[in-house]
């Protein structure tokens, strides 16, 4: 009976009889060699799980954690700490201190990698007992999962999207912080500091400027590292066309001329929607000839004056904008009416 002291004696016996007894020198108390109620005491805030023996400890990254346990048994039991099916040794940020009555596992400067279940197994010849402890290390989230997708590009805004971090730091992401900067500058400007969506429109961009965007995830612990986008220019999705070919002037009359040109070498990735014709007197200002863009590759310019010298140039237009001007035409010099009849006239020029 447990708790009662006993004396024991032993005698040998063979075919001729039993020999003298040998007794124990002092009473022996009956106890359980490995106590069923070995306790595990954690010197931190705990939360009991559904399993009565399971303990859960939640700490912030960088903390030092101690798991002290009291153990009793006869003979003196041994202690072994295990995580992920690997026995823990006193090395790196792990330290184990064990004596005859207790064992302490210390984890210094915890990181997210230390999150997991730790098993303490106490054993001797009478058997073993295992107690699990679960450690959760909370940290800021990792960077959002890249790349940052540029979904829409215009001269004054862009739409970008990203994916949540692979590691939320052990705490749900509650917010994303979106910033922008021009590549020629060092200063970041906040676009949004209060969105839980993974897509956002970035307004108020300057046409032709190149931008980089970055996104950080935030949880209750803090703000994680950023994910940067590739540099992107705020412009139309397509480019303006290249200039049309050099204009050629023909069919000249006393007050007009027909100007012809060829298509640009490139439409910029978007169909050409029209052409704009300009004229000027030599050394004068360029004046637009057609009020609205024309689709044809020629246009009749009227309103010319006798004795003036003119040259013409052409622009091509698409959804992205207007091209640079074509090379100017050869000048029409000294436009003159030299002969007039009832139904015709003769025009000369240099």
Automatic annotation (TrEMBL):
Residue span, Ig-like domain: 20-136
CDD domains the record matches: FN3
Every Fibronectin type-III domain range: 1-33, 143-237, 243-338
Keyword annotations from UniProtKB, A to Z: Immunoglobulin domain, Repeat
Pfam family, one: I-set
InterPro entries: FN3_dom (IPR003961), FN3_sf (IPR036116), Ig-like_dom (IPR007110), Ig-like_dom_sf (IPR036179), Ig-like_fold (IPR013783), Ig_I-set (IPR013098), Ig_sub (IPR003599)
SMART domains linked to this entry: FN3 (SM00060), IG (SM00409)
The protein's name: Titin
